[in-house]
Design brief:
The chain contains ten helices and 39 strands. By secondary structure, it is an alpha/beta fold. The chain has a domain of about 210 residues: Spore Coat Polysaccharide Biosynthesis Protein SpsA, Chain A (Alpha-Beta Complex). The chain has a 16-stranded parallel beta sheet that branches. A hairpin with a 2-residue loop joins strand 8 and strand 9. It starts with a strand and ends with a helix. About 45% of the residues are buried. Calcium ion binds next to loops.
Length: about 450
């Protein structure tokens, strides 16, 4: 069976952070996750991640999903792969894919095509390469008339070799048994005093084994992040690619400034995405919506014809025909049903809002179940927390909640209940009743004039 080893031992000193470099995110996912996803969609699921610097963070992130092995000292890419020899020895019949955890754009297609080429050529080792306009920093591919002859690192290269534009992506297919054998023959006789995985190519050839290069026309799949500027560049490339996919699917963008859409987000045709909109993973949006400007949806399911204007929504369902915003915060576990209108400065949390209900302004609805065609007046507050525990409010269909009503949970209002403005509802109210809680208003005539006179 085929296996994959992902190298993630590096520190990434130039990131200036206490975190393994492969955990830095591109479009919301750690680079390591991008590389894992490429393996998985290429059908390679038996994966071992080589961890090193702050390896416990890698374990914490992977949470047992894949095997890991610790490279205690950072002695080079060849040394990193050596740590995974016991993993390879579990099954030496197939091929092993080696990838860098900090080059997120390697894709399943390239992995698959490179494997085909590797097998068809009968290679012991196949390196994936591409040409870069600026090859600085990468290992250069050396060729003779008969094919690849080796890889030379930037720091070890002659002036002439430095002008070579074909570079090593850091991704390879090896016949597993050959890789184990080749690793045993590496030395650290080079400028960096490291065990270079790249030397396996030269060693294989010198032993009469076949080695080759699978050259991709797409230089982006090589790109890695060595510093934060590179990381921003990777984010820009990924962001643009996602937006292009949605454009092809019929999504409209007036201007893409500040628009960040994570990879797995789905958007229906005819939906317009306005500037400064962030759509995070797990979000699915229907057709003909207007999302933004300044909107954020995180793990939300949104129907058709929804307006989400200058608002944020998390882990919630918003059905078709709902209008939200501006300045609305929909917190997790909310379910906003068809035709609801939620206006400015409203917060909703862990609540169900029934069809065609309106919450037009300045309200807090938490831990509540609200029926259909309810009108929630301005300033309504569900008082769901007594400082110790949270309780629910239930409001029946067709209720009319007057402005500045406080509903002290747990409390239940029946169907078509009215509450008078300013009422604090402290017990259940039956169907069709009015709840009113007010002192008698007094009018003190001439008060202002008397006050002015006495202050002279
Ligand atoms: C390596 C290649 C170079 C290639 C480039 C592609 C070697 C000697 N050079 O260079 O030819 O063009 O990748 O990006 O292989 N790592 C470990 N342990 C180590 C050293 C590295 O786990 O001891 C990991 C890093 O976390 C990283 C990957 O291996 O994910 C590559 O290491 P890095 O130091 O970035 O190699 P480069 O010098 O970029
Ligand atoms: Ca690198």
């Amino acid at each position: 069976m085929n296996k994959a080893i992902i190298l993630a031992g590096g520190q990434g000193k130039r990131m200036k952070a206490d975190m393994p470099k492969p955990l830095f995110k591109v479009l919301g996912d750690p680079m390591l996750e991008w590389v894992i996803a490429a393996c998985e969609s290429a059908g390679v699921s038996d994966i071992c991640v080589v961890k090193g610097f702050m390896g416990e963070m890698i374990d914490e992130y992977l949470n047992g999903r894949y095997k890991t092995v610790l490279q205690a000292e950072r002695l080079g890419t060849g040394h990193a792969v050596m740590q995974a020899i016991p993993f390879m020895e579990e099954d030496t019949d197939g091929n092993t894919l080696v990838l860098c955890g900090d080059a997120p754009f390697i894709d399943a297609e390239t992995i698959g095509e490179a494997l085909e080429y590797h097998k068809q050529q009968g290679n012991a080792a196949t390196v994936i390469t591409s040409e870069l306009d600026d090859p600085t920093g990468y290992g250069r591919i050396l060729r003779t008339a008969s094919g690849i002859s080796g890889i030379v690192e930037q720091k070890d290269a002659s002036k002439e070799q430095l002008s070579i534009k074909e570079v090593n992506s850091g991704a390879y297919w090896f016949r597993t048994a050959d890789l184990i054998d080749l690793l045993g023959k590496l030395n650290n006789d080079n400028v960096q005093k490291e065990y270079y995985l790249t030397d396996t190519i030269f060693i294989a050839l010198s032993e009469g084994k076949k080695a080759g290069a699978f050259k991709s026309a797409n230089p982006e799949l090589i790109l890695g992040a060595n510093n934060r500027k590179d990381l921003l560049e990777l984010n820009d490339i990924a962001r643009r690619a996602v937006i292009e996919k949605h454009l092809e699917n019929g999504v409209e963008f007036v201007c893409t400034d500040g628009v960040v859409i994570e990879r797995s987000v789905e958007i229906g045709a005819g939906t317009q995405i306005q500037p400064n909109t962030i759509l995070r993973k797990g979000t699915k949006i229907g057709s003909n919506c207007v999302i933004g400007p300044n909107a954020l949806a995180d793990h939300c399911t949104i129907g058709d014809n929804v307006v989400l204007n200058a608002s944020q929504a998390y882990d919630s369902v918003i059905e078709s025909g709902v209008t939200v915003g501006p300045y609305v915060h929909i917190r997790p576990d909310s379910h906003i049903k068809t035709g609801v209108h939620i206006g400015d400065f409203v917060e909703i949390k862990n609540s169900t809002i029934g069809e065609k209900t309106a919450i037009a302004h300045l309200a807090y609805i938490g831990d509540s179940d609200i029926g259909k065609k309810v009108n929630i007046g301005c300033g309504t507050v569900t008082v769901n927390y007594d400082g110790i525990s949270k309780s629910r409010c239930v409001i029946g269909d067709n209720c009319f909640i007057g402005c500045n009503t406080n509903l002290i949970a747990p409390v239940k209002l029946g169907k078509a209940v009215y509450t008078a403005a300013g009422t604090t509802v402290t017990r259940d109210v039956p169907d069709y009743a009015l709840a009113i809680d007010r002192g008698v208003m007094k009018v003190n005539e001439g008060y202002t004039l008397r006050k002015l006179k006495s202050s002279k």
